[in-house]
Amino acid sequence: MSCTLEAFAADCKAKLITEPGPGGREKIREMLERVLADDEFMRTHFGNDRDSERNVLYRDPELGFCIVAHTYTKGIAASPHHHGPAWAIYGQAEGITEMTDWRLVQEPVDGKAGKVAAERTYTLNPGDAKVYNEGDIHSPQWEGLTRLLRIEGQDMTTVRRDPLEPIA
Ligand SMILES: [Fe+2]
Questions:
Q1: So what's the pLDDT on residue 161?
Q2: Domain containing 96: what range?
């Protein structure tokens, strides 16, 4: 039976209340992978008039976490970043993400970009989900049509982030 957005959001919320740390997020990641494999759920929330780079499907009024559908129709190479005080779980719905994890070498100071060094690059394939906890630095890259279902600990449009740049 297909999962509904309401049921998925309620399951995420229950888990975040009982286990708010990284362990709970890992369980939400497993739930997200099950949703990514749910064709009916994905058809309901992606495609045609529902496609946009940021379509917030659910925003929790108490905890502030968001479930967001992203559709990118052209290639993007994002800069290294973390999510400030928030965590995020990336779920790959369609296309492939080439993700690089980075290590902080030098903190950003007074608006000057911090320095980061690349640690590893890997791919997220359709059906894969991965947790990025607070401070985990990463840079996704896509080519062509890519769809993601992401869960953000808080709405990332409201979070200010210091710039980071790769060491030469
Ligand atoms: Fe990110």
A1: 83
A2: 5-166
CA of 138 to the centre of ligand 1 (A): 6
Tokens of 13: 């919320």
Residue ranges of the chain with per-residue pLDDT less than 70: 1
- Taking the C-alpha atoms of residue 93 and residue 68, their distance in angstroms, rounded to an integer, is 12
- Largest interatomic CA distance in the chain: 52
Burial environment of residue 160 by CB neighbours within 10 A (0 to 12, 13 to 18, 19 or more)? exposed
Q: What is the pLDDT of residue 164?
A: 95
Residue 160 pLDDT: 83
Cα of 62 from ligand 1 centre, angstroms: 23
- Give backbone dihedrals phi and psi of 48, rounded to 5 degrees, phi first: 50, -120
Residue 1 alpha carbon to ligand 1 centre in Å: 31
The CATH number linked to 29 is: 2.60.120.10
Query: How far apart are the CA of 122 and the centre of ligand 1, in A?
Result: 15
Residues 43-71 have pLDDT tens digits of 999 988 888 999 999 999 999 999 999 99
Tell me the CA–centroid distance for residue 82 and ligand 1, in Å: 6
Nearest to 105 by CA among 88, 122, 80: 80
CA of 92 to the centre of ligand 1 (A): 13
| Count of the separate structural domains present in the chain | 1
